[in-house]
Write a structure and sequence with these properties.
This protein is an alpha/beta fold. Helices cover 25% and strands 33% of the residues. The protein contains 19 helices and 38 strands. Strands 3, 4, 7, 8, 9, 10 and 11 form a 7-stranded antiparallel sheet that branches. Helix 5 (318-334) packs parallel to helix 7 (397-405), helix 6 crosses helix 19 (692-701) and helix 11 (508-517) crosses helix 13. The longest helix has 18 residues, at 299-316. It is globular.
Length: 702
């Protein structure tokens, strides 16, 4: 029985067509719950099945939950998907919070059930350490239980295997198959079948049926020693058997290892001529495959690697974050303020763009006595290099010292809530769009990962409480920002600084220059597709899914000779759209540093509920709204601040055919701004004149 750990299975067994599972749940984990239950859910689908359960026993801190998954009741569900996940669902404030049940890394894969002649159902531990059920073709499975390396370079392995659902023919024999990253050679090592000792394995639920399935093998590692490139060996189990007088071979996936044995990583050094070779055996980080690496040992390089790994471990720990928070607070109190220091940040340090960029460029030209520094995410440093821009790596020690001393912070998105704002710092929040969809306190429900509705609203209000100034592009936005952000300090109603570029650079020569730099045919018209993200479609917090819902093939057939399509996905979307079949027609410029340049080269904007159309309208060019999911977005995810369906400054379309029809109509009849468009400009763009940045800087600094 494993040590008690929250949401972790203590035992899993199979008897009389029933999976029997005991799970430890912390009592404190259920304190806020009005209800909780357990479900099976198909991977990447909404289908789920509730499981019956009861509290078998309890300790001071834990409930031991007993669950039985009967094949009579759940067989069809478990075989209805390749992967079925196992979760606990807690109901808190009428919202469901779902968490995976964790595995105990026992040999649960051996609890298989052959269901057809070719397929098998079995439980397994996922890469993230969770419990799932798999339904797939029969296969060969193996795991190393013990590994040792002798003084003379012999690798001894002791393993166990199972033919999961396989029909084994005559004269079956087994061997290890070893491959190397250096060459394509395959090495075959014979194994010796053994009986597993009852004193070691008798407690395993699979022991009685698999006690004859142990094996032992020896591998002479010296034949692989190399002083050049680091060598990695992968291990598989191979079975050859006779079926209908033919020799058939079945190969397992990479062999896993019992990583709960605390000897890993196992390291040994051996003399190789005048050099030393080091052998390292350990489980891979996610899948727990047996990994063996060999290479020349150099003390200094090894020392640096150890230091680096320790630093990474410290950096990722909660303790370092707490120290960092405290250091930030103390530095903001005791260090002298640098009255000339201004820190800029755009989209969490990912870009040199948007309103902060417009303010930076104006200040660099007109306020030369100030020290202007950009906060740059370490994963996006390339966006700041070779631009004659002064930047500091976000969350570094230097960043901490500069943020704590800076007289001004200028950013267009929320900073992490834990960052304390020093009293001397003036915090300008530029925000990044005129609101169409509901924001913060105005949202009825929040569907984002890692939060719930009340927590999201509370955190937003706490962050907005740190702002000293907030930029608004128009009176409409001012009213919404005050209410949605719970903001009661000064608002600079100036127009958006980022839109000055559209007024000051809107000429054919600039568009031609930009097209040339992007390698877009100057003689073709540009359709810019810039959609927003969907709160409920995500991989994890801060990483959102997105699918192109229109047919690129149809669009290419209609416009491939006269137009190109430029994709600009939201910065929160992590997809990379496959456009290999549409080279020369579709350009994915999602990572282009500033969308303002894409506006300028575009002849038509296609968007949905993104605030980009409020900016693009300043160019007085045509727009289409591809709103294939408008009912769900309007009624469930966000909701709108104004009657978008009646007042949008362009046609609303839901299919590729409708997109093609509207573009062809534009091409034939030209573009005339209708009543909606003119009314839209007067309501939302009346402050935009190319001087918004000047108004902001004068207010803030002069």
């Amino acid at each position: 029985m494993t040590a008690l750990s929250n949401r972790k299975i203590m035992s899993l067994s199979f008897k009389d067509d029933v999976y029997i599972c005991d799970i430890a749940i912390k009592k404190s984990y259920l304190v806020e719950c009005s209800n909780y239950f357990f479900v099976l859910q198909h991977r990447n689908a909404e289908e789920e099945a509730k499981l019956p359960f009861f509290i078998r026993t309890e300790t001071t801190d834990f409930y031991i939950i007993h669950i039985e998954i009967s094949l009579i009741k759940f067989k069809d569900f478990l075989t209805g998907s390749d992967i079925t996940d196992f979760s606990i669902v807690r109901v808190i404030d009428n919202e469901e919070k779902r968490s995976r049940v964790r595995s105990n890394y026992d040999y649960i894969e051996f609890l298989k059930i052959p269901l057809t002649g070719t397929h098998v159902l079995y439980p397994a531990t996922t890469r993230k350490g969770n419990l799932s059920f798999y339904f797939r073709e029969a296969f060969l499975y193996s795991k190393f239980e013990e590994v040792e390396i002798t003084n003379d370079g012999i690798l001894n392995v002791f393993g166990v295997f199972q033919n999961i659902g396989l029909m084994v023919g005559k004269n079956a024999k087994y061997m290890l198959l070893i491959t190397s990253n250096i060459n394509n050679d395959e090495i075959y090592v014979p194994i010796k079948l053994t009986t597993l000792a009852e004193d070691k394995y008798g407690n395993y639920v699979w022991y009685s049926s698999l006690k004859q399935n142990g094996y032992y093998a020896q591998v002479n590692l010296k034949q692989y020693f190399s002083l050049g490139k680091m060598q990695y060996l992968k291990f598989h189990l191979l079975m050859e058997h006779e079926v209908n007088e033919e020799i058939m071979a079945v190969q397992s996936n990479r062999i896993k290892i019992n990583h709960l044995n605390k000897v890993y990583p196992l390291k040994r050094k051996f003399k190789c001529g005048r050099s030393v070779v080091q052998v390292i055996c350990k489980p891979t980080k996610k899948s727990k495959y047996f990994s063996l690496s060999m290479g020349e040992y150099r003390f200094f390089i090894s020392f640096l690697k150890r230091v680096k790994q320790k630093w990474i471990n410290i950096r990722r720990s909660g303790k370092l974050l707490q120290i960092y928070k405290s250091a930030f607070y103390v530095c903001g109190k005791v260090l002298p303020v640098d009255k000339n220091l201004v820190i800029f940040e755009s989209f969490h340090g990912k870009q040199f763009s948007d309103n902060p960029r417009a303010i930076y460029e104006y200040m660099r030209k007109h306020n030369r006595n100030l020290d202007l520094v950009w906060s740059a995410d370490r994963r996006h440093i390339n966006n700041f290099e070779n631009k004659d821009i002064k930047y500091v790596r976000r969350f570094s020690v230097k960043w901490l010292l500069q943020m704590a001393r800076a007289n001004y912070w200028i950013t267009n998105a929320r900073l992490p809530l834990w960052i304390p704002k020093p009293k001397h710092t003036i915090y300008l929040q530029t925000w990044h769009g005129t609101p169409l969809k509901r924001l913060a306190a105005d949202m009825e429900e929040v569907h984002m990962p890692g939060t719930n509705t009340s927590k999201y609203k509370e955190n937003f209000a706490r962050e907005a409480g740190k702002w000293d100034y907030l930029i608004s592009p128009n009176a409409y936005s001012t009213e919404i920002f005050k209410r949605a952000f719970c903001y009661n300090k000064e608002i600079i109603e100036s127009g958006y600084p980022r839109n000055d570029y559209l007024y000051n650079n809107n000429d054919l020569s600039e568009a031609a220059r930009l097209k040339k730099g992007l390698e877009i045919d100057e003689n073709k018209k540009v359709i810019l597709y810039a959609p927003t993200w969907r709160d409920n479609q995500f991989y994890r917090k801060g990483k959102y899914k997105f699918d192109l819902e229109f047919d690129l093939k149809k669009l290419k057939e209609a416009f491939g000779h006269t137009h190109v399509i430029v994709l600009r996905l939201h910065y929160l979307v992590s997809e990379q759209i496959d456009i290999n079949d549409y080279k020369g027609f579709v350009y994915d410029l999602s990572k282009h540093e500033d969308i303002r340049e894409l506006y300028l080269i575009s002849d038509l904007l296609i968007t949905d509920y993104s605030s980009v159309f409020f900016d693009y309208a300043n160019l007085k060019r045509p727009m289409l709204f591809f709103v294939y999911d408008i009912e769900e977005y309007r009624d469930t995810l966000r909701g709108f601040y104004f009657n978008f369906e009646e007042k949008a400054p362009g046609p609303l379309v839901k299919t590729t055919d409708e997109i093609i029809y509207e573009i062809q109509k534009l091409e034939q009849n030209g573009f005339n701004r209708n009543e909606n468009y003119q009314e839209f400009l007067e309501r939302f763009c009346y402050l935009e004149d190319g001087n918004a940045t000047k108004r902001v800087v004068q207010k803030l600094f002069e």
